[in-house]
Sequence to fold (131 residues):
Amino acid sequence: MDEVLQFLKEAKTYFLATADGNQPRVRPFGTICKYEDKLYIQTGHVKDVYQQIEKNPKIELCAMGKDGQWLRLSATAVRDDRREAREHMLNEYPSLKGRYSADDGNCEVLYLKDVTASFCSFVCEPKVVRF
Fold:
C-alpha cells in the first residue's frame, strides 16, 4: 500500500475513471492519503463523479510516473462519513480548505477497498500489489 501511495503522491495527478450508465468518465484527480491503514480520495458531494460512484462504486485510476513507469489501480470506493476522516484529508491538502470544510455537507472522502494495483512499464513485467 505504501508503494502505491508514494507513487501517486510523486505523480501528483492521476486519472480516475467511473461509469456513467454505459459511458465511461475519466477526470484528473490529485488527492490521495493514508488514514487508518487505508487509502483515501476526496471529492465533492455535488459533483457528477460522486454521484457516479454512489451508483457504481467500482473505480479505476491510472498515473504516469518517472522513468516511463505507470500505475493502474482498480478498487471499490467506499464512503466514510466520519468527520475525522474528512479533517484528515483536509489537513493533508490544506489548499482544499478554500472550497471544502469537514462540516459543509459537500466534502466527501472515500477509502479504497479490494485494491489491485499494477506497476507497469514497457521494459518490465507488471508488478501487482493487492490490499
About this structure: The first strand starts at residue 14 and ends at 20.
